[in-house]
Write a structure and sequence with these properties.
Structural class: mainly alpha
Largest sheet: 2 strands, antiparallel
Helix content: 55-70%
CATH class: Mainly Alpha
Shape: globular
Strand order of the largest sheet: 1-2
CATH superfamily: Farnesyl Diphosphate Synthase
Number of strands: 2
CATH architecture: Orthogonal Bundle
Order of helices and strands: EEHHHHHHHHHHHHH
CATH topology: Farnesyl Diphosphate Synthase
Length: 299
């Protein structure tokens, strides 16, 4: 599950100077219950800022890991009900502390997010390659699934079946983001295409580099590899989708749109021949009627 509404696209300001983000799914949409928006925004900005520490700017891997370690110590203080000591983070941890106090947010889920961003730093620095989809899903268990579980906690949904389906939706969204952002991630040294999937189609990671000039036949195999990965993500999303029919009220409608936003990106990947190493598909304002129609008629 996501914090976000796929119905529009916007730029979200980052607490890190000079950093902005294109977001397919802006946070705390008009569908989010108003009484929960401050908590949803607090969680979003906490995660977004940690991701910036891991990914933005020119810092070395060692500096990024040190910053994330300091960020973790600020989270320690936040969960203990103490004020932040780092002058950069009061706008992050004061709202988060209020959300934790009001809603008893589970601390381990917040620590999981930091752990995932630290993994990104280490893997980028080492040139790590993911062996297979299960290894990617283990990453998603900490990078994406905690956000859905935090939201379900805010909505008062705690049963095991719902948590499992939330994890499926969030993991699917994480995988879809990977296959949408192949060109962007490759340029940053983040390599999520799994070795086994590429091997099955007779291609390699180097074929996806911006300066690569693969033969037409190789490009066909590359597209088939991406298509197979998208099919996995599609199946995972459909497994989790019944959750949207059980979550009541505005939160349920937001979840429907989040699911449909992910599925719409898969549509665009398919329409582009699964060549996202060349062009990144994006949601546009004219996708909104399609998303709304599909959300209404979800089964």
């Amino acid at each position: 599950m996501s914090t976000t509404n796929p119905g529009a696209a916007a730029r979200a300001p980052s607490p890190i100077a000079g950093v902005e983000h294109y977001e397919n799914f802006p946070v705390a949409s008009w569908l989010c219950p108003p009484e929960l928006r401050p908590a949803v925004q607090a969680v979003y900005h906490f995660a977004r800022t940690a991701d910036d520490l891991a990914d933005e700017g020119e810092a070395s891997a060692e500096q990024r890991l040190a910053e994330l370690d300091g960020y973790r110590h600020e989270l320690d203080r936040c969960l203990a009900g103490e004020a932040p000591v780092d002058a950069r983070w009061p706008g992050i941890f004061k709202p988060l502390r209020a959300a934790v106090a009001q809603h008893q947010l589970p601390g381990p889920l917040l620590y999981d997010l930091i752990s995932a961003f630290e993994q990104d730093v280490r893997h980028t620095a080492s040139g790590h390659r993911y062996a297979n989809t299960p290894e990617l899903l283990d990453y998603a268990r900490r990078s994406a699934n905690p956000v859905g579980r935090l939201l379900l906690h805010l909505y008062g949904v705690r049963d095991a079946a719902s948590l499992k389906q939330s994890d499926q939706i969030c993991s699917a969204l994480q995988l879809i983001n990977f296959w949408q952002d192949i060109r962007v991630d490759h340029a940053r040294g983040r390599h999520y295409l799994p070795i086994d999937a590429l091997g099955r189609h007779g291609v390699q990671l180097a074929d996806f580099a911006a300066d690569a000039r693969p033969e037409p036949a190789t490009q066909v195999r590359m597209a088939r590899a991406v298509a197979a990965l998208c099919l996995q993500a599609h199946g995972l999303m459909l497994e989790g989708a019944p959750l949207a029919r059980r979550v009541q009220g505005r939160a349920g409608w937001e979840l429907r749109l989040v699911i449909q936003g992910g599925l719409r990106i898969l549509d665009k990947l398919a329409a582009g021949g699964y060549r996202s190493w060349q062009v990144r598909p994006r949601l546009r304002v004219w996708d909104v009627p399609v998303l709304l129609w599909r959300a209404v008629w979800m089964r």
